[in-house]
Design goal:
Blueprint lengths: L35 E17 L8 E20 L3 E13 L4 H11 L15 E4 L14 E4 L2 E10 L7 E10 L12 E11 L4 E12 L3 E2 L2 E2 L3 E14 L2 E11 L11 E13 L2 E10 L6 E13 L1
Antiparallel strand pairs: 1-2, 1-16, 2-3, 2-4, 3-5, 3-6, 6-7, 7-8, 8-9, 9-12, 10-11, 12-13, 13-14, 14-15, 15-16
Length: about 300
């Protein structure tokens, strides 16, 4: 029997997006009726984004984001008849200077990934600066620290099960509740929806695809002007070399995150490589993420892990 484990259920944890609603990649196969899943996931990454006009002086800086994030979250899901499933996720966020800077440069050099000039700047600092399109300084009012994030609710409906060998299709709706505290008390609200598709490619491969959009609540948070609407999509190739293990390569894309900041990129691209292993009712997940566009405003390098249990 084929066991489709699906994509890496990731969020955009970049410093400026960490507390916002993003649409995680997922398979088009909701939790089975009468079954529940509990999942604990952890994401730890180093974030970097830089753009400056010619000159190299401080006043030539258009935006600069440098820091580290960590998120620990718990998710519970329950399946119902008719292809329905519901879930809730409770995250705890942290941001600060961290110490991953010391391992990023060797990693980039080893694999030939773009450096984006990060090795030229001091390490272990949290720095978010920039300039609005009109030339005024960007006044980020956030701070380092931890806090409860916004509780995320989800509803999934299977449109096509794919039991006949064709693609499975589902739609997903999500909403954020304004429950954030501490350093993330301005996280606020949000809503979004996506369509996801899972297509078998023989006995050992599956292709997963999804696209959707989110709508934020307040368009300015911590002094940052955000795009009210944001498109997001993913493409994941799943390979099962043995029955209990899936190897995953995943590409993620999203539209503009920040507005009114001079030359802030309109497209963010990331690559995730990971795997999932089943051991009875338990599922273990892990891997790494890398920004794949030079001078992009994304997680520059990060690791993630999760453990889940079905019952």
């Amino acid at each position: 029997m084929r066991t489709v484990r699906g994509p890496i259920e990731s969020r955009d944890e970049f410093l400026l997006a960490q507390s916002l609603l993003t649409l995680p990649p997922m398979a088009a196969t909701p939790t089975s009726a009468g079954r529940s899943i509990v999942r604990i996931d952890f994401d730890w990454g180093n974030d970097f984004g830089l753009e400056a006009s010619p000159g190299g002086r401080l006043e030539d800086l258009l935006f600069f984001v440098d820091g580290e994030h960590r998120t620990l979250a718990a998710t519970i899901r329950r399946g119902f008849a008719g292809g329905w499933a519901v879930g809730a996720r409770v995250p705890v966020h942290w941001r600060g200077g961290g110490w991953l800077d010391t391992v990023i440069d060797p990693f980039h050099e080893l694999f030939g990934f773009p450096d984006s000039g990060r090795s030229l700047y001091p390490t272990g600092r949290l720095r978010i600066e920039g300039r609005r399109a009109e030339g005024e300084p960007l006044a980020w009012s956030g701070r380092a620290g931890a806090g409860l994030g916004s509780v995320e609710l989800e509803i999934v409906k299977a449109i096509r099960t794919g039991t006949s060998g064709g693609p499975a299709v589902a739609v997903v709706a999500r909403a954020l509740l304004p429950t954030s505290t501490g350093a993330f008390e301005e996280a606020g609200r949000g809503a979004g929806a996506q369509a996801v598709l899972s297509q078998p490619l023989g006995a050992a491969f599956d292709l997963h695809f999804g696209a959707g959009a989110t709508v934020l609540g307040p368009s300015e948070r911590d002094g940052i002007p955000y795009a009210r609407n944001r498109g997001q999509g993913f493409l994941t190739l799943e390979w099962r070399p043995v029955r209990a293990w899936s190897a995953l390569v995943q590409w993620e894309a999203s539209s503009r995150l920040v507005t009114d900041v001079d030359r802030y990129p309109a497209l963010q691209l990331m690559l995730r490589i990971g795997s999932k292993v089943d051991a009875g009712p338990w599922r273990l997940e892990g891997g790494f993420v890398e920004g794949i566009e030079d001078l992009d405003a994304t997680t520059d390098f990060g690791v993630f892990a999760a453990v889940g249990r079905s019952f």
